[in-house]
Amino acid sequence: MKPITAILAPLGIVVIAGAAWWLLRPTDSDQFAACRSTEIGTGVASIGGPFTLVDENGTTVTDADVFTKPTLLYFGYTFCPDVCPLDSTRNADALDLLQDRGYDAQAVFISIDPERDTPERVAEFTDLMHDDMIGLTGSLEQVKVASQAYKTYFRKEEDGDPEYYLVDHSTFTYLVLPEHGFLEFFRRDETPEGMAEKTACFIDAAK
């Protein structure tokens, strides 16, 4: 008679192999898997959420009012000396490429400097960038809610000039699709072409 260990050892191997297959098995649960190029440690669902802000026409709007089409979302401020204009121009270029390919998309700019960025000021900025870029501002509390939802960071310079202060902030651009919410983020070194290509992939996968 074989020792009990000799009988159980192959069984153990089968059980372990089965467990490994279950954990590593391919799944079709993420319809956007082929489009993703970044990873969120806390999961994609942890980014994004409801907010209430004021648009460039002075109208109070919610996230549902804003995200009616594929959107490139950026948090910045109009007095930003370099980073925000460069990033917003890049986003506008990516939007042009998408629209040239027939995609109905838009860009959104949320100010993290509501003290100076009135709806009129935000409108001037976004109008210079792109006809389909929406500017949003609001009270500091409203902006904080939106910023926290998208895990962004901003901090007003404490010892700066009270009128010409700077605001330190994160610089990611987020891709948000209606009915899906946040799906991807783009770093500053991403090109307009790369952004357009990846965004198109997500839009197609959502159909």
From TrEMBL:
Keywords: Copper, Disulfide bond, Metal-binding. It comes from Maritimibacter fusiformis. It holds the Pfam family SCO1-SenC. Disulfide bonds join C80-C84. Cu cation binds at C80, C84, H169. Belongs to the SCO1/2 family. SUPFAM superfamilies: Thioredoxin-like (SSF52833). InterPro entries: SCO1/SenC, Thioredoxin-like_sf. This is SCO family protein. One of its GO terms (molecular function) is metal ion binding.
